[in-house]
């Protein structure tokens, strides 16, 4: 996604996917293709998310990748979603990965990002659609919906997620969300007011 908007106060939020039609096929913009995971993508993956401000440093990103994704190589190959350009260079990423925010392991959208040089071409939307389709393929009907965690600084991404059918999580604090249960609801409401205000202002701004 875009680089984080650091002018916004940092408040983590969650979104869940509402009912949606089956996704038959996902196409990328001309000049791009989906690619299967290969070890050569590890370094570009880390550098991309450092560039986007989602990881603090290359060294910490490598350590994170090793203890998270490389702890389950089979899931990494199956659940990493990559978009590359015509030269095979990484342009964007997404994945499905285990999250335990609701008290038990459950797949969630993980680490969506598009290189700034390739943004505003529809890559993020295609990556998300591919991720949703993969979830529908892997998770039986009737299970809890796909979810994602994000933050106020990613308000642009929140607008895209909404267009894809995700809705703000408004329930009680999930057991492993890592916030204060006594202030969670108030902070959550404040976060979505801030996000909605930015999205409305953006929609009114001249193109």
What are the SSEs and their pairings?
Blueprint: E1 12-17, E2 32-35, H1 42-51, H2 58-68, H3 73-79, E3 80-85, E4 90-99, E5 106-114, H4 123-138, E6 147-151, H5 155-163, E7 166-168, H6 184-204
Parallel strand pairs: 5-6
Antiparallel strand pairs: 1-6, 1-7, 2-3, 3-4, 4-5
GO molecular function, one term: acyltransferase activity, transferring groups other than amino-acyl groups
Pfam family, one: Acetyltransf_1
Domain N-acetyltransferase: 39-190
Search tags:
207 residues, alpha+beta, Aminopeptidase, 7-stranded mixed beta sheet, 21% strand
CATH domain class name = Alpha Beta
> Could you give the order of the helices and strands?
EEHHHEEEHEHEH
User: How far apart lie the N and C ends?
Assistant: 20 Å
Number of domains: 1
Q: Please, what is the CATH homologous superfamily?
A: Gcn5-related N-acetyltransferase (GNAT)
Strand content: 15-25%
Compute the CA-based radius of gyration. Answer: 17 Å
What this model shows, in words?
This is GNAT family N-acetyltransferase. Residues 39-190 form the N-acetyltransferase domain. It comes from Thermophilibacter provencensis. One of its GO terms (molecular function) is acyltransferase activity, transferring groups other than amino-acyl groups. Pfam families: Acetyltransf_1 (PF00583). This protein has six helices and seven strands; from the N terminus they run ββαααβββαβαβα. The chain has 207 residues and is of the alpha+beta class. The chain has a single domain (12-204), classed as Aminopeptidase (3-Layer(aba) Sandwich). It has a seven-stranded mixed beta sheet. A hairpin with a 6-residue loop joins strand 4 (90-99) and strand 5 (106-114). Helix 1 packs across helix 2 (58-68) and helix 5 (155-163) crosses helix 6 (184-204). It starts with 11 loop residues before the first strand and ends with a helix.
């Amino acid at each position: 996604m875009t680089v984080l908007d650091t002018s916004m106060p940092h408040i983590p939020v969650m979104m869940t996917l509402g009912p949606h039609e089956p996704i038959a096929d996902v196409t990328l913009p001309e000049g791009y293709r989906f690619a299967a995971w290969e070890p050569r993508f590890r370094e570009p993956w880390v550098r991309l998310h450092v560039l986007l401000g989602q990881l603090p440093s290359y060294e910490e990103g490598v350590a994170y990748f090793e203890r998270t994704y490389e702890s389950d190589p089979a899931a990494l190959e199956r659940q990493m979603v990559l978009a590359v350009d015509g030269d095979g260079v990484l342009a964007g990423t997404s994945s499905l990965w285990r999250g335990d925010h609701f008290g038990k392991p459950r797949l969630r959208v993980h680490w969506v990002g598009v290189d700034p040089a390739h943004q505003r071409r529809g890559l993020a939307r295609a990556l998300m659609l591919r991720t949703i389709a993969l979830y529908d393929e892997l998770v039986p009907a009737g299970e809890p919906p796909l979810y994602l965690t994000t933050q106020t600084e990613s308000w642009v991404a929140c607008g895209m997620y909404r267009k894809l059918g995700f809705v703000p999580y408004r329930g009680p604090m999930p057991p492993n969300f890592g916030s204060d249960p006594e202030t969670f609801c108030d902070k959550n409401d404040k976060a979505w007011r801030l996000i909605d205000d930015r999205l409305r202002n953006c929609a009114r701004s001249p193109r």
